Amino acid sequence: MKVRKRERGVRVRIHTGTPLPPLTVAEPPRAASITPSRPAAAPKRTAVPIQEPTGKFRLTPPAKPMARRVRKPSRWAPLGRWLWRNAEPLGWAAVLSALVLSLWFSPRTQITRVQVYGVPPQAHRAVESLIRTHWRTPLALSDAPRQLERTLLALDWVQAAHWRAAGVGQVAVYVQPRTPFIAVEDAQGTRLCLDPAGLAFVPPNLSRSPFAGVIRLSDGYQLPTRGALVEGEMRKAFTILQALHSHREVMQPRVQLSRTHGIRLWLSVKRGSETVPLQVRFGDARALPTQLATLSRILELPTDALRRWAYIDISTPHAEAAKPHHSGGEPL
Asked: Which residue has the higher pLDDT, 215 or 42?
């Protein structure tokens, strides 16, 4: 028997002959445990069975879960973790670096006093003025001593300069002046010196310097450049005086450079208590080694032979001639 029943506007057909199967409704699953650090999430919606008018049951599809936002890893995160792990050694390194910098830039570790040794008394004021002009104390310890050396080496009469520490904030600079070997004098009387290597310079005590010889320049010749080596005819004159420096009997050698007469040498030969003047003419000195060998043989001649000659001409190798004090000449 079929019974139609109206229930609030919904028609339901009930079969009384056959009993309906038992209806079981699945309980929704319990929500997952929520950690206290995160806010509680809303319970998930599950399928709920709904009976249709035909007597069948259907399940509503569950709502789609919302897409969770994924955070991108920061590029500075590894650096931050490394700094956090090494915070203690980095802190000690910063403290030690600050201590070293404070000591480095402290006046106690900088140069506050400079002492210079080896300078001639005539150059004390010039060197002091040079240092005060180029430097202001305190000086940084990094490159200041070497800069002091380079400043002093810029002087043409300084051959070497080196520094040493002389205490806290003190530096001692030792200067080695050049040795005047030969003097060069022009037609106006201006002088400068040549060291044993032939470098031109002006010593602070020019008037008191001992010389191994003098080169006199006639009109048409200029003094060599300070700080440069001599060349040309002046180099030949320097070589002649350098060769005579080893002879003990030779005194006061002088070389005259002239455009007309070439290279001429004046000297005095001392034999015991007697001194004999001598003049030797080299001409253009093209064969200088041969001429120097001839000059060595001349200096070995007896005193009587040297006394009777006015000058000796060795400008032509292997054809040397000597002029006596009377007129005329004779082969040497």
From this structure: 215
**Statement to judge: residues 234 and 213 lie in one domain:** yes
Is residue 162 located within the same domain as residue 211?
A: no
Residue 158: both structure tokens together: 């300084």
For the stretch 14-63, pLDDT in tens is 555 555 455 454 455 554 444 445 555 555 556 667 777 777 777 666 56
Q: Is residue 217 located within the same domain as residue 117?
A: no
Q: Let me know whether 187 and 279 are in one domain.
A: yes
User: pTM, whole model, 2 decimals?
Assistant: 0.61
In a domain, 126, yes or no: yes
Are 125 and 171 in the same domain? yes
C-alpha closest to that of 257 among 282, 277, 229? 282
Of 186 and 28, more confident: 186
Q: Which domain holds residue 163?
A: 107-177
Contact 173, 152 (CB under 8 A): yes
H, E, C per residue of the chain: CEEEEEECCEEEEEECCCCCCCCCCCCCCCCCCCCCCCCCCCCCCCCCEEECCCCCEEECCCCCCCCCCCCCCCCCHHHHHHHHHCHHHHHHHHHHHHHHHHHHCCHHHCECEEEEECCCHHHHHHHHHHHHHHCCCCECCCCHHHHHHHHHHCCCCEEEEEEEECCCCEEEEEEEECCCCEEEECCCCCEEEECCCCEEECCCCHHHCCCCCEEEECCCCCCCCCCCECCCHHHHHHHHHHHHCCCCCEEEEEEEEECCCEEEEEEEEEECCEEEEEEEEEECCCCHHHHHHHHHHHHCCCHHHHHCEEEEECCCCCCCEEEECCCCCEEC
